[in-house]
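Example record used in the benchmark description.
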Amino acid sequence: MKNQNQNVHRVGIIMNGVTGRMGTNQHLLRSILAIAKEGGIPLDNGEVIIPDPVLVGRNPAKLEKLSEVSGVEKWSTDVAAVLADAAYPVYFDAQVTSRRVDAVQAAIAAGKHIYCEKPTATSTADAYALYEAAVKAEVKNGVVQDKLWLPGLRKLKRLIDADFFGKIIAIRGEFGYWVFQGDAIPTQRPSWNYRAEEGGGIILDMFSHWRYVLDNLFGEVKGVSCFAATHLEKRWDEENCPYACTAEDAAYATFELAGGIVAHFNSSWAVRVRRDELLTIQVDGLNGSAVAGLRECWIQPLSATPRPVWNPDIEQPIRFFDGWLKVPDQETYENAFKAQWELFLKHVVADTPFPWTLLAGAKGVQLAEKGMASWKNRRWMDLPVLPPIC
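Model output (structure tokens):
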């Protein structure tokens, strides 16, 4: 709804499921409300996009509390009524994965533009069906791919574009931390994450991330070999009641990428951290290597690579960490979620490019599904191409 007097283009956004930690902090407070507080998103034609959110969900007490904390006055538990309101052309979904397909389908049927968290579904068929429905309905659509805008990965992308590595041969990712069981020390994650029947499990959660990171930075994922485990079999839920974990909490996977690149990722909620950050990605090339975290990136060119010799009988004379150079901050980095929100809203209003569609979401689900199949069947799994719809 355009305000002619102030040269403002207000975009109503239905925000479903943002009472959770991620939805509240990253999407509502640090993205949508931060954009509005800064005066909106400027367009080349002189207009400014101002997001206008309405909070929706199932729990009125949580919605009312979030309304008070955030200052967003409009909230409702009647999702259907809000979907019928033409003042809100964009639907955003941050619910638990098991509720996402039906909710997004309803929003597409209502003619809303779709932006949602990943994974977009629990099966490739359902995820691809969402993409097909959005294309058929001619609504714009996008999936959160937040890690692409992290400072560490932005620096890594700059190195790739500058051909720092030469031929890239291998990638190693380490992700995770110790998630407490919840008995003596409070847990850091919701209990549904550890219930397969509610869409939980680290494969579905994290492989959706690894797919878009690998596809966008290094090359399309062609196949996967995966082994997973439920290391902690018992946890305590939000009411301090014990429950049996039915979903895996660790996955160890090898991916084949286009161009023959090998990528290995360890993902675990049952590991104690001895690395710079909760996520580190090492990239090895013929001309140099880099290690990127969430914010920092370190490099070692071929010319500065030490020559170690294996000799376990003496103390290692090389201080390996000293041989790496820190990549400097050469630009200002926005909050990763906010950066992608701005691109999506510009896509909705000004039709600027936005390649991270529901098709990308389906590819993430596909990798998770094939990873689980590899684990269950103990075999390598190829990834069929999911075709774009022209």
